[in-house]
Amino acid sequence: MFEHVDPFIGTDVTALPPQSGLAASWWWPKPQVGNTHPGATYPFGMVSACAYSGAYPTGYGRYDLSTEGLPPVLHDGLVASGFTHFQQSGTGAIRKYYNYFRVTPMLRPLDDLGQVWDIVEEHAEPGYYAATLSSGIRAEITVGPKSAVHRYTFPAHHDARVVIDFSLGGLDIPYGRTVPLRAHLASVGPGCAEGEVVVEGAPLAVRVECDAPQWRQMLWYDRRLMPGGTRLDFDRIRPTTLRPFGLMWAGPAEPGQVVELRFGFSLRGAEQARESLHRECGPGPGVPSFEVRRAATQDAWREQLAKVAVDTPSSDKQTVLATALYHSLVKPCLAPDESPFWPTPGPFAFDLSTMWDIYRTHLPLMTALVPDKAVELANALLQIAEEEGNLPIGYRMARGADRFSRQGSALAHTFLADVCALGLPGVDWDWALVHMHDDLRRTYGEEYLQRGITHPVSHTLDLAFGYWCTAIVAARAGDLTLVDQFSALAGGWTTAFDPATGLLVDSTWYEGGKWNYSFRLLHDMASRVALAGGDEAFVGMLDRFFGFGAPPVRQPGLLPGLDELAAGYALDRFEGLNNEPDMEAPWAYMYAGRPDRTAQVVHDVVQQQFGTGRGGLPGNDDSGGLSSWYVWASLGLFPVAGQNLFLLNAPAWREARLDLGGAALTVETTGFVEPEAGGPPQHVQSVHLDGEPLDRPYLTGGELHRGGRLLIGLGPEPSGWGTTHRPPSSPAPPTRPGRAGHLTPLERTTP
């Protein structure tokens, strides 16, 4: 899979073929751009590095701030003023844009720092990024978990230079810049410097080593050199007093001369940054390490990307899948022993930038493919709760700053419930139960306890399910009193719905509307379907939502007006994979005995809304939220997050293999026909698990993680498979092992 990854997918405005059939009726309100970047990354690593233009939202690329429709252009072409570190992946307006320690290779005076050069050639693959600037300088970058190595190849010049700007951060858009609060920088020896910038409360330290022994090493301030100076200290910086400052190496360059820069980073001081650098890149300076670090990082990527393999004759489809898997393994940033906010060692994580987007698909994929990393993240979340008082909804490289809870509540509970139900070792579940319980009583949770409902009403669903998930942990800890209490509170989801309409009650909404939030997969879907009036009525509502029989719609263009947006939202339509609130909805049909409808919707999304090229994503990738959806759906599997359950559907591959923490699951097919965009879907006719017939349309988490052979018979028409035995639906949370290892004391299937 490594060779098929294209890190440029999602970096440009959406450029998919025109949608046809059912997909043409879906309306896309969110920005039509993936917001990814092609920079060098390490699987779940702390560091990324990429060309910097100041564009929204990663610092790479051409576009200005956008929240709806096509993004406005900031730069006519691809340009760079240097190369920065720490980028988001696929997010939107989260107000933490990093891009620290810009490195600019120059052949011009320091006064010209900040000008942009055209990027005339680019190449990217997992763990490696290269660009040639119109100045004639070629840049190559690779990274480790906590390090980065740059290599610059210069043309002949009498005074070439590499300039590192310690003062720059954020984006070149209104209100997008980041101003360091404090900064310290010192030359500590030939080719060596150390420093720290405190940005939005996070003290980010760096050790820099330069392999250019014949060049001059100098500090600079306000674009003026400080010959002989060895230290800069800024104890208080305001936006009005900030002047650029940093470090520079300069000297004559021979044709093709190579200069290597090595960075070690830490949130716990320069000494730890130095230790990370030397551990990951060897001692220096003077010992070239670019190729060694690149090889080690690419080996790590090959190992992770090999966890999924498929049989397909289409190199384009292979590229789409490989890149989706790659984007699913970039975030969150796992940075063990790096918390700057508490002194204890142990797991730490940041860039859980859009938990409301990743909890449904991305975190279950992480749990399935790299369960040890899932345990590390679980412990990091619990440590954050221990020290800061909240299980985070979004968490960036800044303590508690800019917490955003409007879009969701209790989302970490869903992830923790899956880890607990699988019995993964390494988590103290008594400790977890304390924090999960406390967290449910905060913010919107207090109103839920007092009134039985809270607004935005989607939080009522979050909190009810949070209690259901926490009861799983309470059962694991043997606290049956809490299980009983949480069981009653888990039933509070019904207050969020209007029995007269079968939809959620009127409320305020974030990134969607009543219909988008009304079809999430609850723990008691049997009651949800009954509340809507039964199978036929529920399917009718879903058919309306997905646009069966509806005419094609017009998508928002550049800077859409309020009237255009209002008309689009008034459609009450599925938003495709342009947005996440309704990404579970295609599978809701299965709880009403209509897997054929799921097959149709999923087929159209998989075959029409993901493609190759820079414009190959239908919307913001949101830290892998969209990409992981594609990985699951194309495999014919879909996780019901928090319920340790995987729904089955027709796969998009003749055969696939998954490495699930050491156990292999193969997904094989009979009757397979290569799917085509705009063509008909295939339907499941039969399923066998390790040779035994499976008449239910799901696997338990235990079955999935044990691996084995899943054989799916396919055909062109719907069959009776999956129409009688529905996925589990339980008003009470799991307390003991049930069928096939699925924890479910009151499992209820409806004919």
From TrEMBL:
Glycosyl hydrolase family 92 N-terminal domain residues: 4-167
InterPro entries, per the entry: 6-hairpin_glycosidase_sf (IPR008928), GH-type_carb-bd (IPR014718), GH92_N (IPR041371), Glyco_hydro_92 (IPR012939), PNGase (IPR050883)
Region (Disordered): 709-751
Keywords annotated in UniProt: Hydrolase
Pfam families given in the database record: Glyco_hydro_92 (PF07971), Glyco_hydro_92N (PF17678)
Domain Glycosyl hydrolase family: 272-715
A molecular-function term among this protein's GO annotations: hydrolase activity
Keyword Hydrolase on entry: yes
Keyword Nucleotide-binding: no
Protein's UniProt name: Glycoside hydrolase family 92 protein
